[in-house]
Amino acid sequence: MKNIKTLLIISLLFTVNSFAQKKWTLEECVAHAIENNVSVKQIELDNKLAEIDIKDAFGNFLPNLNATASHSWNVGLNTNITTGILENQTTQFTSMGASSAVDIFKGLQNQNRFRKSKLALISSQYQHLKIEEDVALNVVNAYLQILFNKENQKVQKQQFQTDSLQLVRSEALVDAGMIPSGDLFDMKATLATDKQRIIQAEYALIVSKMSLAQLLQMEDFKDFDIADVEYEFEPTTILLETPESIFQKARFERTELKIAENNVKIAEKDVDIAKAAVLPSLTGFYSFSSRVSYAKIPDGRGGEINPQPFFDQFDLYKGHSFGVQLNIPIFNGFAAKNNIARSRVNLEKNKLTFEQTELDLERNIYTAYSDAKGAMETYLATEEMLKAREEAFRYTKERYENGMATAFDYNQSQTLLVNTQSDLLRTKYDYLFRTRILEFYFGIPIIQRN
């Protein structure tokens, strides 16, 4: 029994430890962020409201049906609703009825409201997609930032190890009299600088992890980490396209344009609805009513006759009313006219918004294209610079070990090398993100999700 408990405890600890050390992939991060994002949840509720609005609009085509019932007591001198005679007594009456009405013609308001509600649902769905895209884009950016900080941390640690070995060689060179002993202080200062860079790199990594964890709506992010993925620089085919071709495709793909275009259609329906308010409307109606009295009726000879049975009275006093009602608007204080003018102004505003959205999209695509192309050229130039820095450092290192260069020369060359290594990492991940944005405009999903 004791062994079983021990095995259970070990198994539990292993499970907890495995969960704490989970490495999140980019796909998992995007899916988790979209599932838990507050804005996404809010727009999902807006979708439900839009679906309810469609049901409301559809209900306008259906006839309404209402039922009424009342029971009253009359005390004192009252008119008997059955005999029409004033009587000083306590009586009871039950009345009931039902009514129904249906719009026969209402200037196509109901049809346009129904079409508008369907367009509103489409807009809400587009808004949902747009928010998901924005969340995914932010997650990708934060994810790549963590990868950059991880690689940069490795570079700084490797440089510290290299400088530590160089300090040992410098001590040997000092003992051999090949370099002055003062150079050791410069080497120790270099190691101190390396430690400082490692601390800065570690801090930057922690902050980037925290930023991504917050995007994922995580409460406990102390143990949060992502999977170690190596992204190599690869020229993308998207740069073989022209900005014009990317824009032409984006006009049919981008969600923000679909939202703006759909809002124009909604505004057009508002104009149609406002115009219908000045047209005559025709309504059909039907009503049914009946009543029952519990009072005794005088027989004319000083006696009273008991009231008829409930259902007999209900059948005897029932009545029907039906017909059509025509309503012709003549003057309503300019309300209808002003609503038409207001809806037309709103339509023009939405048209301008659509045009501005199209212009913004074109500008963003040209900017994204320039950024991606510039990032690629910067990476290639930095790569060439790194090769030159490596050769320069190798040459300076040999001269330093032979006593032909000072520690200052050595440290200066090394600093330039480390900075170029960091620049190469930064430009690589900047290129990766910029090309993702450009591909996104071209219709390629930010991240493939099931």
Structure description:
With 450 residues, this protein is of the alpha+beta class. The protein has a domain at 106-279 and 329-441: Outer membrane efflux proteins (OEP), CATH 1.20.1600. Helix content is 65%, strand content 14%. It is built from ten helices and ten strands. A four-stranded antiparallel beta sheet has the order 2-5-7-10, covered by helices on one side. The chain has a two-stranded parallel ribbon with strand order 1-6. A two-stranded antiparallel ribbon has the order 3-4. Helix 4 runs antiparallel to helix 5, helix 4 (109-175) packs antiparallel against helix 7 and helix 6 packs across helix 9 (335-401).
Which descriptors apply to this entry?
450 residues; alpha+beta; Outer membrane efflux proteins (OEP); 4-stranded antiparallel β-sheet; 10 strands; 65% helix; transmembrane; transmembrane beta strand; porin activity; signal
Quick structural overview:
The chain has 10 helices and 10 strands. It has helices at 2-20, 26-36, 38-59, 109-175, 183-215, 243-253, 255-276, 310-316, 335-401, 407-441; strands at residues 23-24, 64-74, 77-79, 86-88, 91-105, 225-226, 281-293, 297-298, 304-305, 319-327.
Number of strands: 10
Strand order of the largest sheet: 2-5-7-10
Number of helices: 10
Q: CATH class of the domain at 106-279 and 329-441, anyone?
A: Mainly Alpha
Helix/strand/pairing category = alpha+beta
The best one-word shape is: elongated
Amount of helix: 55-70%
Strand content: 5-15%
| SSE succession | HEHHEEEEHHEHHEEEHEHH
Task: Please name the CATH topology of the domain at 106-279 and 329-441.
Answer: Outer membrane efflux proteins (OEP)
Average pLDDT number: 87
Unreliable stretches, pLDDT < 50, 5 or more residues? 1-20
Largest sheet: 4 strands, antiparallel
CA distance, first residue to last residue: 46 Å
Q: Measured on Cα atoms, how large is the radius of gyration?
A: 41 Å
| CATH homolog superfamily of the domain at 106-279 and 329-441 | Outer membrane efflux proteins (OEP)
CATH architecture designation of the domain at 106-279 and 329-441: Up-down Bundle
